[in-house]
Structures are given as C-alpha cells and as structure tokens.
Amino acid sequence: MPHFSPELGSSTSCVWSQDGAKICVHPPRLSKHHWEGMCALIRQSTTLKCINICRKFDDARTAYDYLSMLFDANEQYECPLESIHFPPKDLLRRRHVQIVLRFLESRPTTHWSLNLESTNLGDGCIGLIIDAMNDGVLIKSLKLSGSGQSIDDDDFERLLTATNSQYLSELVVRESKVTAQGYDALASFLRRASTTIESLDVRNSAMYVECAQMLLGSIPTNSTLKLFRLGKLYNRPLPNDSYNATVQKLENLVCNQSSFNALLHSNHTLHSIGYNTSELKSQNANLRVALDINERKGCSINKKCRSKLRALYFRGEFDVHPFIGIDIELMPLVLELVTMSDECIVDKKEGRLKKGTYVRASNGHLGSIYRLIRNCHLPELFSFPSPESKMEQLEAKIASLEAQLASLTLPSNKRLKPSDT
Fold this sequence. Notes:
This protein has 15 helices and 13 strands. Among the domains are: 209-313, no CATH class; 323-400, no CATH class. The strands form 3 sheets. A 9-stranded mixed β-sheet has the order 1-2-3-4-6-8-9-10-11, with no helix packed on it. Strands 5-7 form a two-stranded parallel ribbon. Helix 5 (153-160) runs parallel beside helix 6 (180-191) and helix 11 (285-294) packs antiparallel against helix 12 (301-312). It has helices at residues 32-44, 60-70, 94-105, 125-134, 153-160, 180-191, 209-218, 240-254, 260-264, 277-283, 285-294, 301-312, 331-339, 366-376, 387-408; strands at 14-16, 22-25, 50-53, 83-85, 91-92, 111-117, 120-121, 138-145, 170-173, 199-201, 227-229, 342-344, 358-360. The model is unreliable at 1-11 (pLDDT under 50). The longest helix is centred in the C-terminal third of the chain and has 22 residues, at 387-408.
C-alpha cells in the first residue's frame, strides 16, 4: 500500500510508492511549510528515483518558489533521482525550466528522464533544454508533446544534433510542426552509428507516407530502435503503390529474403511502427513472423536471427548455394539451424504451452535437411569419401611422391659416366 508522511498533510497531497522509489505530489494541496518538509524528506531519501508533479501550480510565482526548493542545485541529495514528470496543462516559463536544468547540471553523471507531455512550455524553453544537452546534461528520455509545444524544424534539428543526443534512448515529439526538413534531420539521426535510440514517437505530426518511407529506409540493420510510433499513416486515401512501397521498406528492413546473407543481416530489434502494426501483420505473413520474433523479450540477437532463418529461409526450395563447398567442420552448425532452433507454437493443443510461446524444436525440418545433404555433397558426414574426394586425395598423393622423387634425383654433372666404371 502507498504510504505518506503525516507532517505533510493529507494522504492525497504527497504519496510515496511502497518501495519508496516514486513520489506523487499535488502542489495546490501543500502549503509552503509542508512543501519544505517534503523537500527535506526527498533529499534524505536513499531510494527515490522519480518525482511526479501531478497537478499544476497555482500561479507562476508559486511555481518558481516551489521548484526552487525542490530542485536546489546547492543542496546535497542522497536519493538516486533520475526521472522528473512535470504537470500537464501547466505553463512553465524560461525561469522555471532554468531552475530544473541547473539542478540537472549539478548531477552530470545521471542519465535523466524528463516527461513534459501536455505541459505548456513558454518561448525558448525547448532551446534551453537543447543548450543544456550541449553543455553536458545527459538525457536518456525526453517527452515533448501537446498543443502547447510547437517544436519547429530548427529546434528539432538542433535537438537531434546536440552534443549528448547519442544518449537519447526514448524521444517523444507528438503534435509537432516538424516538416520534411525536420524529418531529413531525423533520418540522419537514425543513420548515425552513435545513435542508441530505442523508442521514437512522432504521432499526430505533419508526416506523409513519403516521409515514413524515407525514415524506414534510413534505419540501419544494426539499429537499437525497437518501437517507432509513426501514427495513422494510412488514414487518408493512398494509391496502392505508395502503401505497398512502405510495406516493402519495412519488410526489407526486418526480413530481407533476397539472399541468405540479407536475411542474416536484417534488423532484429524493430518490432512495432505503432498504430498500423496489427494491420500489417494481418496482411503480410512474413512481417508477422519477423516482427513477432523481433519482439521476443530476454532473447539475444543471435537467437532471434536463428529463429528467423528457420522460419523464413529453410523452407521449400531454398537456395543451397551459400552452403556448397562449406568446410565440413561447419556443416553440423548449419544443420543445427534446421534441427535445433526455437519455434513458435501457432495452434494451442492439449498438453502444450500457450499459443505464441517459443519452444526448443529438436525434430527438425526433414525436407530442409534432405535438401541440404542432397545438394551439398558432404559424404564425410557419413564416414565415406565420394569419388571426387577420393580422386583428389590420389592426385595429391601422386604429386607428393613426384616431389620426393625429384628431390632424390642427382644433378646431371654428378651422374656416373661409363668411363668411371
């Protein structure tokens, strides 16, 4: 059960989580005296990680006074604070944001989460956040959304090119005024090798299907991006070729089946593009399989890759050329891909696990095994040489004997003459 401090007033004005890692505060219900007491407890806490300001302040002056006490850069804080949620529908001016950013600068090694969703930011506030990132503040999660925030192309580009932008693992920029110029900057950000973004949300923005195609095409196969909320891209009439081109971009990214190497080096992390993911899965079986595999939790990239190869490559008349001439010592590992990879349970049956569960499949795909062995000509697996292999061995032995014979032959000037006998 949540607990609260009696000296801070009612149980609804300041609520702590049971483990002490989060506190939810309601400024209008706390007097200045109670607020000072709460700030003292926060500084002494050794477990607090998140401060959630649930209600807006009474006025700008109160906001300045209360934020100055809560985020005092000159005070010593024992708590491992790393996340701050600002109140929705509140108006934060430059001086308010400056107080918070000075506090963040005083803790330069902390990776911060700033939740400003639906918070009305005054002019220049987004610029202050970007300047702080350039000055050394590490922000891992930044949420900017709502009609009160109108981030434009210039600010968006500055944000994505800030000194510490590579530490962003979550970025929410919804209901923005970003245009094609801003999305070009986002494409460059996604292509950067140093980018570590995992979740990106650009819903309800002025994005057209051409921008979506460009952004999907800019995601590297080794990207860390898992969730990309593009919004309702297809809620307006679109030509079939535009829709199909977007689907093809996504398919080429997560399950490129043009070759063995292409599928092997596909993206194994992205599992959702937001609203249209379910629709795409229902219409494209390959995408459904690939995205479901990418979504597996607690599963290594190597394991996802093996599952994807088993499900999408080793089926039907697959191309055996990548395995022809392969080293005999590696062939058992190839066969293991077909016989010992994980499989997803499609239909729930009596005595089996739930649908969608991945299990170790040791029965193998007999058709795939037969096709590999039939075409790769590796009889060494069965302890007898092929005629071609035997001929190569004989030719090698003959060449070795001829070399030995040549080394034993005396030079012509040292051969015995008849007169010497």
